[in-house]
């Protein structure tokens, strides 16, 4: 029971100011009518400048993404990690994203195409449509008319050449070079660079100098010439594999003349290389360093470096270190690195866990397609995803993914136009898009026109 003083105070206040509180009577209504009371809400998008990915599932809004527009404002880094099991649409997303980015005049894309059938890579049809000839690395034809990339190309600095040689050897040996072997390699490389002036130095020159070191190289360190020869023997045997072994012909000669590094799309076709062999990380290391010194330039172009089967990079400590430097260096020059991986456990539990964590940290955009529940929980823990996102990942259908753009997490439906469909869903690509989704058909020309109008009307972006 209220005390008399409170009752008197309330009565006096009501007399002066009117009734303080308004009592609302309950209203009986239906859920349909209550929609006007509880209005729907949706998470904010990423802006309206860039390329269309599709639509946000819960709100139906168009989802637009461009790392170059977002960099420095909503993104601390323009790099992107794509995860998911086969058959859920990673391949379709990669291809449409590249095709739509190429609609901008200041874009260039390099793709390391590690998958393929029928003797060509998965990106072969897109390359043909754009009038591009893929750079096909194939040890079976390299000695005849194949493509060569020279690790000792003069366009690569001498420091870069030596770092690349060390990486090739360490990847092949499975451990780092000791001081003695590193010294033998350094003096052999220095001698070859200094005395080969009438042509490009090649790996055969390095192997020859390791087998027959110069006396002055031993004298400079006050060691016996036979010791220097012994220290370089294992190194010579590893490099001999690229000269006269199963990787012969691709890297043991001058760089092939005519490789067009100014083309809008550059495709390195690695589909003829065994993906489970040590050759793949060696190839990716050579291609990565070669591109670093020949392709990335301060010309204000925005470059995208897309790597399929990227676990070959992230799972090797030595290759990961090279690419980690490339990512840090390229970010200043407008490079967006896109790594496509099936399972996060392929990299975070491997030999290069420390290097993998560093690369994953630089990927401010993460796209996760359907995974099994255990893998989804592990992915959510490593990437710091909210619980609701982790719970729906195992239930996602093909074409739908969780997008985490620097903490902005949304569920996005990827959409494809009819003009893109023949280039995206090739017979080879259908292995990753075997489940047809009616919402991905886009049979109405109106939607295709809308996408093209948006892409044509987008303003040119700059890197902050």
TrEMBL record:
UniProt keyword annotation of NAD present: no
A GO term, aspect molecular function: ATP binding
- Coiled-coil ranges from the UniProt annotation: none
Q: Which UniProt keywords apply?
A: ATP-binding, Nucleotide-binding
* Gene3D superfamilies in the cross-refs: 1.10.8.730, P-loop containing nucleotide triphosphate hydrolases
Q: Give the PANTHER family listed for this entry.
A: SLR6007 PROTEIN, UNCHARACTERIZED PROTEIN YJGR-RELATED
Official protein name in the record: ATP-binding protein
Organism source for this protein?
Answer: Streptomyces wedmorensis
């Amino acid at each position: 029971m209220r005390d008399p003083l409170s009752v008197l105070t309330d009565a006096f206040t009501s007399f002066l100011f009117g009734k303080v509180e308004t009592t609302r009577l309950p209203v009986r209504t239906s859920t349909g009518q209550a929609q006007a009371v509880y209005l729907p809400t949706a998470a904010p998008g990423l802006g309206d400048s860039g390329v269309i990915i599709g639509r946000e599932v819960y709100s139906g809004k168009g989802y637009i993404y461009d790392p170059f527009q977002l960099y420095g404002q909503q993104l601390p880094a323009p790099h992107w990690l794509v995860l998911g099991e086969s058959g859920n649409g990673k391949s379709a997303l990669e291809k449409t994203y590249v095709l739509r980015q190429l609609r901008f005049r200041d874009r260039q894309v390099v793709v390391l195409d590690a998958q393929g059938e029928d003797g060509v890579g998965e990106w072969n049809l897109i390359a043909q449509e754009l009038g591009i000839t893929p750079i096909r690395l194939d040890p079976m034809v390299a000695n005849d008319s194949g493509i060569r990339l020279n690790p000792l190309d003069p366009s690569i600095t001498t420091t870069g050449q030596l770092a690349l040689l060390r990486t090739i050897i360490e990847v092949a040996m499975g451990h780092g070079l000791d001081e003695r072997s590193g010294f033998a390699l350094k003096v052999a490389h220095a001698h070859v660079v200094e005395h080969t002036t009438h042509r490009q130095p090649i790996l055969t020159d390095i192997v020859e100098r390791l087998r027959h070191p110069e006396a002055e190289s031993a004298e400079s360190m006050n060691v016996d010439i036979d010791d220097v020869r012994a220290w370089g023997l294992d190194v010579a045997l590893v490099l001999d594999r690229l000269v006269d072994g199963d990787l012969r012909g691709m890297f043991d000669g001058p760089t092939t003349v005519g490789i067009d590094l100014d083309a809008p799309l550059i495709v390195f076709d690695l589909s003829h290389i065994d993906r489970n062999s040590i050759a793949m990380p060696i190839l990716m290391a050579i291609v990565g360093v070669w591109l670093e010194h020949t392709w990335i330039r301060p010309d204000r172009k925005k470059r995208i470096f897309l790597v399929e089967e990227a676990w070959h990079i992230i799972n090797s400590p030595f290759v990961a270190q090279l690419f980690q430097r490339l990512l840090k260096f390229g970010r200043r020059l407008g490079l967006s690195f896109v790594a496509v991986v099936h399972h996060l456990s392929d990299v975070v539990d491997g030999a290069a866990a420390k290097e993998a964590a560093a690369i994953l940290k630089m990927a401010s955009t993460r796209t996760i397609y359907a995974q099994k529940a255990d893998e989804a929980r592990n992915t959510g823990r490593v990437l710091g995803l909210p619980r609701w996102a982790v719970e729906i990942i195992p239930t996602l259908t093909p074409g739908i993914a969780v997008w985490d753009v620097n903490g902005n997490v949304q569920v996005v439906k990827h959409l494809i136009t009819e003009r893109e469909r023949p280039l995206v869903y090739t017979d080879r690509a259908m292995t990753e898009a075997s489940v047809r989704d009616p919402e991905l058909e886009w049979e109405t020309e109106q939607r295709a026109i809308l996408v093209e109008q948006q892409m044509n009307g987008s303003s040119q972006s700059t890197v902050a």
